[in-house]
Automatic annotation (TrEMBL):
Annotated ranges, domain HTH gntR-type: 20-78
The organism's place on the tree of life at top rank: Bacteria
Pfam families: FCD (PF07729), GntR (PF00392)
Statement: the UniProt record of this protein carries the keyword Cell inner membrane: no
Cytoplasm found in the keyword field: no
Stretches assigned to the GntR C-terminal domain: 107-236
Signal sequence, renumbered to the chain: none
Native species: Bifidobacterium catenulatum
Alphabetic keyword roster: DNA-binding, Transcription, Transcription regulation
InterPro entries hit by this protein: GntR_C (IPR011711), TF_FadR/GntR_C (IPR008920), Tscrpt_reg_HTH_GntR (IPR000524), WH-like_DNA-bd_sf (IPR036388), WH_DNA-bd_sf (IPR036390)
Protein name: FCD domain-containing protein
Taxonomic lineage of the native organism: Bacteria, Bacillati, Actinomycetota, Actinomycetes, Bifidobacteriales
GO molecular function: DNA binding; DNA-binding transcription factor activity
């Protein structure tokens, strides 16, 4: 494991806990802290300059993700990634900022291909009329921001906030509680693609057209057209990332 990293403890106890948990998780993902290796709470306190209370919270956070085992008199024992809660949005965020980012993006894109077209078709069938009417509004706002984006990163952030809301609403209106439960996961990968510089500053016309098509199909209650248009959206992502 890396040594000598010190994060001075301050008034932001929760922020400190998150920062240390993130650092350790990424070290496990990068192979710096290998599966089976242990770290005592005392070593954790010393390395990061944190209190016993914060060290225990870090242990609880990592244990809740199945990233470590916590054993008395031994401390935190790193677990193989295959045992982690891979769909947890926090784990995904950690992985997107590790050396496994490309693999994570590829896996999540495959998940989106499996889930989102079906969710869009279901939303076209099942969403209430007043909710269906929201989708063309989202799509129009996204196009307006994208085509008039003279604000650089600020404009792009507005676009992606709407994009996250658009996709989240589809998952929640699909009538499938498992699809809805994936909304944080999908939102994390949508935001992560931007944070990692994997999205153009100006969204492509094809992507805007596909969002328009999904929105129109859902609003008009046309499941198969909604499915096909959503497939176009995720296919465009896969092509842009050179995965398929």
């Amino acid at each position: 494991m890396a040594e000598g990293t010190v994060i001075a403890e301050n008034t932001g106890g929760e922020l400190m806990q998150d920062s240390v948990s993130r650092t350790l998780a990424i070290e496990m993902l990068d192979g710096v802290w290998k599966a089976g290796e242990s770290l005592t709470l005392e070593a954790l306190q010393s390395r990061f300059g944190i209190s016993r209370t914060v060290a225990r919270e870090v242990a609880k956070t990592l244990e809740s993700m199945n990233a470590v085992l916590v054993k008395r008199r031994i401390g935190l024992v790193a677990r193989p990634f295959g045992e982690w809660q891979a769909l947890n949005h926090q784990v995904i965020e950690w992985r997107l900022h590790s050396t496994q980012r490309e693999q994570q993006l590829s896996s999540l894109t495959e998940l989106r291909l499996a889930v989102e077209p079906a969710a869009a078709a279901s939303a076209a069938r099942l969403a209430p009329i007043d909710v269906k009417a929201k989708f063309p509004v989202y799509a129009a706002q996204m196009r307006q921001i994208a085509e008039a984006n003279e604000e650089g990163e600020a404009g792009l952030a507005q676009f992606h906030d709407l994009d996250v809301e658009f996709h989240t609403l589809i998952l929640h209106e699909s009538g499938n509680e498992l699809f809805a439960a994936l909304s944080d996961t999908i939102a994390t990968v949508l935001r992560g693609r931007v944070e990692l510089g994997k999205y153009p500053m100006k969204p492509k016309p094809d992507a805007l057209d596909a969002h328009d098509a999904v929105a129109d199909a859902i609003a008009k209650g046309e499941p198969e057209r909604a499915r096909s248009a959503m497939l176009d959206i995720v296919d465009e992502v896969a092509r842009a990332l050179n995965f398929f």
